[in-house]
Specification:
about 45% helix; Nucleotidyltransferase, domain 5; 6 strands
């Protein structure tokens, strides 16, 4: 059944998947319940439909005023029982304490196939946030593709410019284990990067705020002006730059 045909059938049955999931998938598993709370619903359904290398993608740092955006691509192992305790604790990175994220990220990197990519502030300013957001996911996927051959993508909230079957799932990091794992790996990777940057730029407090626009960071921006790692195209940074003549 074609994608268009599937959507038509779903609408006749009174179910509307378009509000929460955008998809392009020639072998759509009709047994899959897209509104299920089960974090493996997408992965099980797509495996049943014949997909073998399902990759979860997520990005972090989109709303920060400084530093890169990061994306992780994660392909779960075939047998999750080999690290069942790890996978039972994986969830949306935003719901986890930093120390727990670090532990889980290490486990995911050990037991899954993962890659991470980042795009710096200058590139975000040059091409725009939306384009950079897609690009960083594409870069992470390209790196992962050097080790496996992905055949279906699960992406948080969007789709990317790639010919592979893919699902853009609103709130995907809370609805797919693959995306949740990617959110954790990307978050830990970017956080560590911001802590390292903070050693050379300590006044902005990036070791604590990770480049986001909290009050202490905004106060430092107002006092010191921006540095090369700030996103000049973001309004709070641009306004401080204008004041300081940067």
């Amino acid at each position: 059944m074609s994608v268009a045909g599937f959507v038509s059938v779903m609408e006749k049955r009174g179910r509307d998947v378009s509000s929460s999931t955008t998809f392009s998938c020639p072998r759509y598993p009709e047994c899959m319940k897209v509104d299920s709370p089960d974090l493996l619903e997408y992965e099980r359904g797509l495996t049943h439909a014949g997909y073998r290398h399902i990759v979860g993608l997520d990005e972090v740092g989109r709303g920060a005023l400084a530093g890169p955006i990061a994306a992780a691509a994660v392909a779960l192992p075939r047998d999750l029982s080999l690290a069942a305790d790890l996978w039972s604790r994986v969830q949306d990175s935003k719901t986890l304490l930093p120390a727990r994220r670090v532990v889980l990220s290490a486990g995911i990197l050990q037991h899954a196939t993962c890659d991470v990519a980042m795009i710096d502030a200058a590139t975000i300013d040059a091409i725009g946030l939306a384009a950079a957001n897609r690009m960083v996911m594409e870069l992470a996927l390209r790196k992962l593709s050097n080790r496996i051959q992905p055949d279906c993508l699960l992406i948080d909230a969007m789709t990317i410019d790639d010919g592979l079957p893919q699902f853009g799932i609103i709130g995907g990091d809370a609805r797919s284990l693959s995306i949740a794992a990617a959110s954790i790996v990307a978050k830990v990777h970017r956080d560590a990067w911001m802590v390292e940057l903070s050693t050379d730029w300590p006044h902005y407090g990036w070791d604590r705020n990770k480049g986001y626009g909290v009050s202490a960071h905004l106060a430092a921006l107002a006092t010191l002006g921006p540095c090369v790692y700030h996103r000049a195209s973001f309004r709070p940074v641009a306004e401080c730059a204008a004041i300081h003549g940067a």
